[in-house]
Target: Subtilisin-like protease SBT1.8
Amino acid sequence: MAKTSTCSFSMVIILMLLPCLCLIQQEAMAANTKKTYIVQMKHRHNPSKHPTHTDWYAATLKYHNSHSDSLLYSYKTAYNGFSASLNDEQAHLLRRSDSVLAVYEDTLYTLHTTRTPEFLGLQKGLNLWEGHTIQDLDHASNDIIIGVLDTGVWPEAKSFDDSGMPPVPTRWRGQCESAPDFDPSLCNRKLIGARTFSKGYLLSSGGGYMVREKEQVSPRDRDGHGTHTATTAAGSAVPNATLLGYATGTARGMAPQARVAAYKVCWTGGCYGSDILAGIDQAIQDGVDVLSLSLGGSSTAYHRDTIAIGTFAAVQKGIFVACSAGNSGPRQGSIANVAPWVMTVGAGTLDRDFPAYVKIGNGKRFSGVSLYGGEGIGDEPVGLVYFTDKSNSSSSVCMPGSLEPSLVRGKVVVCDRGLNARAEKSAVVREAGGVGMILANTVASGEEVVADSHLVPAVAVGRSAGDEIREYASLDPNPTAVLSFGGTVLNVRPSPVVAAFSSRGPNGVTPQILKPDIIGPGVNILAGWSEAVGPSGLSKDTRKTQFNIMSGTSMSCPHISGLGALLKAAHPDWSPSAMKSALMTTASTHDNTNSPLKDAGGGGGESSTPWAHGAGYVNPQKAFSPGLVYDATTDDYVDFLCSLDYYTPETIQLIVKNPNVNCSDRFDDPGQLNYPSFSVVFGSKKRVVTYTRTLTNVGAAGSVYDVDVDAPPSLVAITVKPTRLVFPQVGDKQTYTVTFVSNNTPHHDDYSLLSKFGTIVWSNQLHQVRSPVAFAWIHDS
Model:
């Protein structure tokens, strides 16, 4: 009995210890789990015994208990440092090294997912400035190279036709990589580069290298997003382009004679910061003139923002950078990519639409949109169904597997917008036997509707129409509907309208810098597409198209990138900030009815504000001859960073890669940066704000400009000194001071409503140099 008791007691102890042992084992495994880290080095500490920085990085890893083969990327131009596969202990040891400035985990970023040249006024024969035509610019842009960081490229797309293009510029140092599905010979005089960056992505599982199902490391675009953005920026002219009969016409990019270099940094699992940084690093070395990034994450401090750090190096080299603002609107403060050295691009509509209609059994008819390209459901009413069962809410939004075929077969299904992809809902309806779909907006999506290439006849409608249709389908004992499609309609009025999805200010990182900078065409954009995926982007979509219509700030960004290429061709001596200023100060704040821009995010046709549209909707006709520009150097950006009290000189080195930063010259306020717009932040203890700006004459000698100001009545007074600027010569600079005085504070507890807007405009008979002004009141501590 004693032996048995002892044995039983021992077993009990073991059983009690098992959970603890498992927990210890799990903690040990977690500690040894490797993740990608980005390491910033102090380059002045590089011992001379190491022939290259890569050798130094490998030796540093080995010294701190890491294998040298854990090195993923050795950055050369975009960053002073490297990325590596490390466990927590190895990362901790590196942080304690005197040679290391910072170590932080890799960041996951996401994609911000025809008619536009005509809508923007870039017709053949158009005189832009001093006798130069758009054809002159097209010819000059042969020497401009646009680097597109995205999901790769479909090289067979007609938009990459290089007929008639001269040889590739001799300064180009890039290449086309080889892969089982991508031969370097597919590149040509239009598509001159195609590279991949996947090491951070392949380690994203937290274990080791892992090749995702059906995905191989190749420049080939199997998503479509990268091909769409690249051809929007610089696609060659393709006649008779169309998506399933919609938007038929000649498709061309903004700079159809510019060169394209594709850097694939985005994969099935997203876009990792280490890969993005490697792509920017390589693009700078290859010799690009413009960078286009239709991707991003939530705004974060600049020294933790991979895109901000990499693009700073690009701007230092004279590269113009455009980034998408994000698709998290109309929520305020949702803006991404807010660094002042990049151009942050929001989205607006075109004057083209794809109308579709719903007629329900009670005789009411509702307007919507659609890109469905197959046979319709006919003119006879068919049954309509909407699932309102609160116990199974997934049915109302048509989640996969949520629809009962016996209740859906042969009917049109009302699907609420939200939770899953819009096009996926139509696939769910089709699989359940439905013959059509009404995609109905809810409170969250408001009245803005986006056209999609659905897998069944489908019409997207706004919230108010959706509410009426839902009520009818729920209460009528025998609800029916008829769906019809109106094709392509042009000259829609009013246009443009700010897209509801376009992310908004204020700038959460630096409130004194107004973002977005500008908006461009980003709704229902036709451009080249990958034939590896159907137009809906769904794996179940077996349709193949050479073009697709997409919406998002991902689409507006390459419009500005392409225009940046044209500006670079027109004015090769302009800095990136001068180019940005030209685009901003000439942007339009009125639509084609000559009314102030409307905001689709408001739901009721409200006027837009600079937190939604920045300086306005891009107007390239005027941007080539802006008269004056607000120029800034990278030294100015350093002074800007030094004005942020939470940054030490050593922290700023993370961004600017200059070991000699000491912040002896700094702005008193970050708003002192010579920026083309103003964002004025008042507090209970700060009721007067004074900023200085410098304008450079890029127009004619002997130009004289007078100022005109507009401020919120009774709230703010604006004083500008002097009120007239005289520029005897081209290139002359003149400085003015503007003082903003808060006379009153808006009475409201919600910060989002404590905002007003105004303008400062310098003008003469030829030019209007317009700067938006945003005012915000915050509660001081």
About this structure: Confidence is low (pLDDT under 50) at residues 1-31, 206-212, 749-753. The first strand starts at residue 35 and ends at 41.
